[in-house]
Design goal:
Length: about 475
Amino acid sequence: MASWVLSESGIRPLPHIYSRPRTGFISNSKNNQSRIRFFHSNQSKTDLKFRGSKERIWALRVSAPLRVAYGEEEEREEISNRVNGVVEEPDFDPGAPPPFKLADIRAAIPKHCWVKDPWRSMSYVVRDVVVVFGLAAAAAYLNNWVVWPLYWAAQGTMFWALFVLGHDCGHGSFSNNPKLNSVVGHILHSSILVPYHGWRISHRTHHQNHGHVENDESWHPLPERIYKNLDNITRLLRFTVPFPMLAYPFYLWGRSPGKTGSHFDPNSDLFVPSERKDVITSTVCWIAMAALLVGLSFVMGSIQMLKLYGVPYWIFVTWLDFVTYLHHHGHEDKLPWYRGKEWSYLRGGLTTLDRDYGWINNIHHDIGTHVIHHLFPQIPHYHLIEATEAAKPVLGKYYREPKKSTPLPFHLIGSLLRSLKKDHFVNDTDEIVYYQTDPQLSSSEWQAKTGNGFTSSTLNPFAQL
C-alpha cells in the first residue's frame, strides 16, 4: 500500500537492502550478456555444482564485480523467466557444442535399461502377428465396405509396428543373439516388402552420420546446388503432400537425390564387399514374398488381395515416412545440420526430435522416443522412455520436450505441412547450416504452371526422396 501511495505521488521508493541477495545477481561482464540468478541453498559454499531444478544451490560463475539486482520491474522480469525455480537463459544456440559428452548421457541412464530380454522382445512379435492375422480374418469374414476403411487404417498401423520390431532386430536391440535377430528381422521385414539387410546397413549409415548434410542417408537436407538442379515436377512432388509420404518404396530402389545405388543391389556403393551375401539373402527373401503375394492374388483374386494387403501396405508406407520425417524436421525452432569439422556424432544426434503419438505410442513400440534411440540404438524399445527421463537433466535445452498428443496425433499433421512449406534446402558450403525456404515453391502461380505434365518419367526423380 505504501509503495502505491509513493508511486502515485511521483516518489520512487528507496532500493531494498538485504543481508543476503534474495533475487540474485547480475554480472557486469561484457562477455556475459545473459543474467545469472542464484537461490538459497542448505549446501555449503564449497559445493557449487548445479544439479537441476529440484535442488536449489548457490553457484558463482562470474569474473567481474557484482551488483545487487533490485527494483519491482526487474523482479517481475525474473519471475516471468523463471521455470521450476531456475531462470532460463534468454539466448540458447542449438548449434553450439553441448557442455556435456556422450559418456555423461550414458552414465545417467540406469544399467538395466541396457539389458535385452529376448523373451520379452518375442512377446511383442507374437502380439503383433496375432493382431495382424486377426484383423485380416475379421475383415475377410465381414467383407463389408463399412469395415474395410477401418481395417486398412488398423492393419496399416500394425504393418508399421512389425517394421519397428524388425528395426530393433537390425540394431541388435532385439536380443544379443545375431542369428535370432537376423531370422526374426527377415521374417518381419520380408512380410512387408522391406529388404532386411539392405535396409539394416543403410539405416546403420543413417545413425552413424545423423545430422550430417552430405553423409546422412535418409531425410537429409538438399544442398542448394542439388536443389536448384531438380526439375519442377520433382521439386513439387518432394514438398507437396501426400507425395513425400509415399516415397519409401522408391527410396529403397533409388535412394535420395545426389546418391546412387539400390538396397536390392549387392554391388551398390551402399555396401562393402563383405556385406554382399547378406544383401543377396534379403533380396531373395523379398522376391519370395512378392511371389507369394502374386500367387495369393491368383487364388483369392486381385481385388481381395488389394483390400487385404495392398491398401494396408501403403498405409504402412505413409506411417513410416510420416514418423521418420518428423523425427528430423518440423520443430518450431530452426535446428542445425552440420558438415566438416563442426559435425560430431553427439551434435548430430541432438538435432533429432521426440514425438508423442498418443494411443499409437504403445502400438508402434515407443519409436517416438527418438533422441536417446539415435544416440544409443542398442537400448531396447521397452526401456527408451525410462532412459529418456534419466537423460533429460544432462541434455538440458538440447532436449526438446514433445507436444502432448490427443489420443490420435493429428497435431503432427500441422508440423508436417509447415515443415514441407519452408524447409527446402541448405547452404552449399557452411559447416553449420539451417534450412532455407524457396519462396517460389509455395507460390500458387508456380504450382499451377507445374501442375501439368505428369508422365511416367517424372516418377523416377520423385522416387529418390
